[in-house]
Amino acid sequence: MSDNPSPVAPHVVRLPQYTKADQEEILGNGDDPFGVDSAGLTWLPKEEHFGVRHEERLVAHAGLRRLPVAIRDAETEVVGVGGVAVAPGMQGRGLARLVVTAALEHARTMGPQHALLFCRPPLVPLYRRLGWHPLDTDVLVEQPEDRLVTMPLRTMVTPLRDGAHWPSGPVRLFSLPM
């Protein structure tokens, strides 16, 4: 049996839902599949889901959620991107690029000018290659019991419109992170 990818090009499908079982189909059932549990955060589920199937198995996912933010004193909205996952045996085949690109195409129809994501530092180079830019400022996010905490993961943004510019200044997410 060959380790070569299937001759059929992978394509992204919109998923009607994304469950814990779907996540486990991609990443297995480890205790900390995204490597972020040490941050101690409570996360919002995504509302829109995009995936890639290979031989009837879900092997990649990206989710979206529209969120309220303030940049400096200006309140606006962003499309949060999260839950990006590629099955370990399928990494290195461009599936992250494929699923994130499809999710961002949909995000452009949702209204906000920018998409925002939080990632572990080792993933910053991947997202840079996909057109994302790290923020040089702390981002405050809400947590249960009316707590406001500084996001310990790296925050990155990408424009959803030509000419969209992310302003400088402190950022506050008016919700749990996605």
Molecular structure report:
It is a single chain. The protein is α+β, with helices and mostly antiparallel strands and 178 residues long. Helix content is 15%, strand content 37%. It has three helices and ten strands. Strands 1, 2, 3, 4, 5, 6, 7, 8, 9 and 10 form a ten-stranded mixed beta sheet that branches. The mean pLDDT is 93.
Question: What amount of the residues lies in strands?
Answer: 35-45%
Number of strands: 10
Main beta-sheet annotation: 10 strands, mixed
Radius of gyration: 16 Å
Structural class by helix and strand composition? alpha+beta
Globally, the shape reads: globular
- Total helices: the number is 3
Oligomer: single chain
The SSE string, one letter per element, is EHEEEHEHEEEEE
Distance between the termini: 39 Å
